[in-house]
Description:
mainly beta
Amino acid sequence: MIEIGKYNTLQISQETETGLLLKDNSGEEIVLPTKHCPKNFEIDDTLNVFVYLDYSEKKTATTIKPKIKLYEFALLQVAAITQVGAFLNWGLDKDLLAPFNEQKLEMLEGRWYVVYLDLDENTNRLFASSKIDRQLQNINIIVEKGDKVDIIIYQQTDLGYSVIINNEHKGLIYGNEIFTTINIGDKLTAYVKKVRDDNHIDISLQPIGYRNFNDNNSTLIYKKLVDNNDFLPINDKSSPEEIKNMLGLSKKAFKKSIGALYKDRIITIEEMGIRLVKKA
């Protein structure tokens, strides 16, 4: 059966006035509209196409890559509000509906929301939902401390940011452990810091094992050194602008932190910059 909301590998069976007729192994057929057809093809060639319902509620194929697939999450923008809900731009000809009863908060035109793509099995229609938490489960956790994971930032809280882990679990990045700019909808690589007894999952944006210093600025500088082959071309003689541009710190805060790192023999301060000399 040709599956809606997913990519299907289908065989070209016939060329028609409206496009190419594609079929699967069971013999089910759908149309790939002319505007989406490849320039060069032969009958019996196979194509990898995305399938959804067109305006007449019939299955249709496209070679355009959608911004979201079935049972996945993505950040989408509201294109219009109607009597039945919000229509989201997901990159295809027909916008994606987020019914009012699937909106965690009332959606507004032009705003962006992290949503989940689901399928109504009764009507066979795709729909978007911003009720993210109900799509995540932390009962059967399949990650552990130190694991490298894929995350999507989906909500800011008093403690930091809630994240979707591997399209499966809910996690949290604490605000005081974030040393770079992140935004709702960002898709990032992160690491499992801790799986708590209550099945809450703490997430870190840096690999587990970075040294925990007495202040966040020292941790930031240490991470930047690791990411830049153990050297940064700034020191206590650098201008405030250079330090701000590279680290986002004031010169006073920078000097205080590198002084502590130097005292602990973590770095050396050289004429051209600072260098990491001790791996933590």
